[in-house]
Amino acid sequence: MSGDSGKKSIPYTVPIGPVHPALKEPVMFTFQMEGEVVKSVDFAPGNTHRGIEWMGMRRNPVQIVHLTDRICGICGIVHSLSFARAVEQIAEIEVPPRADYIRTIMHELERIQSHLLWAGVAAHELGFDSLFYLAWRVREQSMDLIENITGNRVNYAIVQIGGVRRDISTDQIPLVEQGLAYYRGLLGQMKNVFLNDSTIRMRCRDHGLLSYRDAQLLCTIGPTARASGVAMDVRHDYPYCAYGDLDVHPVLPPQESGGPKGDVYDRIIVRLLEIAQSIDIIQQCLDTMPAGEILWEKKMPKLLMTLKKARGEAIGRVEAPRGECMHYVRMDGNDAPATWKVKASSYSNLMSWIPMLKGEQLADIPIIVASIDPCMSCTDRVAVIQDGSAGFLKKDDLTRLSQKKTLRLMQCR
Amino acid sequence: MSETPHRTPQEIIDLYRTEFGAGVLDATITERGEGVHKTKAYNIWIRLDKDLLRPAIKKLMDIRFPHFAVIAGSDLGDEIELLYILSIFYGTKFGEYMVTLAIRLKKTDLSVPTITDLIPGALLSEREKQEFLGITVTGIPDGRRLFLPDDFPQGVYPWRKDETGIKPEMVRELWAVNRPRDRPVPPVPEKKPAPEEPAAQGTQKTPGGAAE
Amino acid sequence: MKLTKSFNRSLWVFHLNTGSCNGCEIEIVATVTPRYDPERFGMKLVGSPKHADVLLVTGPVTKKMAPRVRRVYEQVPDPKLVMCIGTCGQSGGVFYDSYNLDGPIDQVLPVDVYVPGCPPRPEAIIFGVVKALEKLERLEAAQ
Fold first, then answer.
1. What is the pLDDT of residues C87-121, one digit of tens each?
2. Residue C101, in any domain of the structure
3. pTM for the whole thing?
4. Which one in A66, C52, C68, C113 has a CA-CA gap of 20 to 30 Å to A356?
5. What is the ipTM of this complex?
6. Does B161 map to a domain?
7. Which chains contact A through at least 3 pairs of Cβ atoms less than 8 Å apart?
8. In a domain, C104, yes or no
9. Which residue, A347, A367, A397, sits at the end of a domain?
10. Residue C77 belongs to a domain with what CATH number?
11. CA distance C122 to C79
12. C106: distance to nearest CA of chain A, Å?
């Protein structure tokens, strides 16, 4: 072994996982490290593979809608919405406009609660536990609204093929507007806390960089791509539900904060500004919602007969809080679809971890991995093999490393 | 670098037909409008010869750099159809099109060239097709299994509908595990006769109700 | 309700995801937030199985995760409790017929308390923890 340990850094391998920042699944990471710096990263998903597409090819579309609700618990409505839209295109079912508006409102409410969830998780990874609790407390308001409209906090089960199952009555509208007013009042404070805090800026600025070209080549989507300057947003480019009537622009990091650089700080800005955008969209929808029916066909047997006769293929595509969520469905006259392909939004964003994590330090791994918003931060364990001896770092230790770095940066200012 | 001009869906299909001629087996445009104004969104479906896959993707990249979504695969009996789903002209208001390039592979020759040198983000999708449909992607930089566990039997491809698909004994019915079979059937409540309706049979009352 | 001596007024909880959809996960994390605040009962979410008293398991067990679940269970020191949260772990829920699942959780681990729901509300999870404490009391009294 070397006497001058400061000069020579011995490369070693760090496996992390599999229970880790899960998106659809816990992911297994393997980092090649040299000293404190990551040289290369490899990841292996597959721990939550439940065979959903195979199960879907044995059920009829109405049953599949209930299955799609549970592909991911955080993205509550996006999978059901994409699937229902694909099937409606095949069977040429026309959705009543009121149902489109209700779907849009639920879609935006889900976006608000998902971004607040992520804000709390990101704060926890940085060491701001009080911000974590605050963000999740604030999120409870939107969960109350969602529960008021759909009946449940998670797994809304509001989408049915041909419309929505529940309506927003006139005495629910003041409650929704009250919730929106609460968020409008809070948004200024949240922006202040997240963006003007010098520690967050120190930890997040210029870390986890993803260039514009990399974002295009690796097919990143959603806020991760928008933070790198790629102006893509399905609501703006490929309108669905009520977005054809509204004016939605992709949210890019504004010029006041230096324009899009593609680091973790930009991703925080984009998500906070999207919360503000969602509040405006919900207000517009409530103001201009047309009256009318909410379901194309209320009688289930008639709906199932129509779906059984449908033939063709279609793509249903929506903008989930994490990016584009797409379902491809092909039906050929049987009960069950012949082919069903699900592309969840984090599926496309996974590859962007590789350029983002190169050259970063071990203590920055939690925040960078969480910055593309994989579905949930679960427990992870890190095995560090150094000089032949194996030690186990648990999630507490990894997060503590990240939190200690924050303290170090704060002290030497 | 100047941006190439926005084109209509028919122009894109014409560009493909002029370049590839008889290789384009079929091309259709579908559209969908939702909401009150029914603003249209367009999808382009192009069915191609198997060898034209890479030139077709290069052609799309010449028109404007596309966004690659996913590869969908379908078992059609003695052929496997691969659909490369991309989207072009993202960033233009109401102007993005989904372009699907479909190729068919005979089950006797299931090999397709990789597109990861053109679009590196397609790697995960190609790995997934290899393990779920049993095709071989030639030139893939990393051909390991993606979602299935490592001890999953080789030669079993979950999405196939022939004898290499999932066999019934591999399926585990979780609800039936340890389910007691000696309980009596619960009693079915008697159906009350429906009250006389003088008005014509309209829609039945459903939970949720219509708009007030 | 008296808290048992070996737990000394607190119950530390480790959460293990065996392949669930994350719905139960967000409800578990929502349970520790200020609105429901189980820290007044002494319940805390820890990051390592070696510090835990109760194991909260969610999800239907995928084949890849089954050996890891057993390993984590062996690392939790005695006395311990296993709580199964959510319907997937109890009867499969919507995933009732799949080729990649190893069955309900009680085929892999011995479960003490079941909290059904898809996902169960935070109030239901707290109720489940209270039931778990009562069960521990009964076990201690029986010894």
1. 888 888 888 888 888 878 888 889 989 999 888 99
2. yes
3. 0.86
4. C68
5. 0.86
6. no
7. B, C
8. yes
9. A347
10. 3.40.50.12280
11. 25
12. 18
